[in-house]
Amino acid sequence: MVIYLMAGGPSDLHPDLGMYKEREGCIWVGVDRGVQILLDHDIVPAAAFGDFDSVTEDELSLIQEKLDTITIYPSEKDETDLEIAFKWAVAQDPQEIWLFGSTGGRIDHFLGNIQLFLREEILPLHKKISFYMADHKNLLTVRTPGSYSLQVMDDKKYISLLPVMGNAEGISLDGFKYPLQNSYLPMGSTLCISNELISEIGNYSFTSGILLVIRSSD
Q1: Residues 29-45: pLDDT tens digits?
Q2: How confident is the model over 79-116, as pLDDT tens digits?
């Protein structure tokens, strides 16, 4: 099972949702204004979460008419709408969780959304759940120590590895324009920004730390 969460970020940053609509075994979930965004793309989400303070009364009426499952929360609460929806998605035990509409706009929301992937109770789940954040130019995921492969993506040729929550060690890159062998990557380093693949498949591994892996277009 794959769960797609659509938040209410700027529409000009959304990826092409048509790439994901036809995938089998996927569940769409709207988060606040993200529900209306999905309806505008002829996608009726299976569930919706939010305080819905970013939609008009007419839009909320339409949302309530179209959806069987909608949970409305108060505006003043201890969690963002997306955090509530994210926790629900994790509890469904899917293979993948994707966040759309979660970049751009307010930088505090964007950074908070990234940190959803980095919660202490979430990090162990990265071994069985793949978490992704996507917009029209970027695809972001989080990796825990191990070995991984990447295939060439014509529309996202740049690959960046950023250490978070501490330094990363034992990083090796094979099949990359700028290879590494058992290297050390401290917090704040830009060593692994804007690398590229030179083969159809590149391999990377590391022994400790947590990495943000970001694939970007020009």
Answers
A1: 999 889 999 999 999 99
A2: 888 999 999 999 999 999 999 999 988 899 899 999 99
Task: Provide φ and ψ at 159, rounded to 5°.
Answer: -125, 125
Query: Same domain for 11 and 98?
Result: yes
Residue 50 belongs to what domain range? 2-136
Distances in Å between the Cα of 16 and the Cα atoms of 101, 136, 137, 138, 218 are 11, 7, 10, 12, 17
Which amino acid makes up residue 127?
K
Q: How far apart are CA 68 and CA 148, in angstroms?
A: 40
CA distances in angstroms from 191 to 12, 97, 161, 167, 179, listed in the order given: 30, 29, 9, 13, 11
Asked whether the whole model's pTM tops 0.85, one would answer: yes
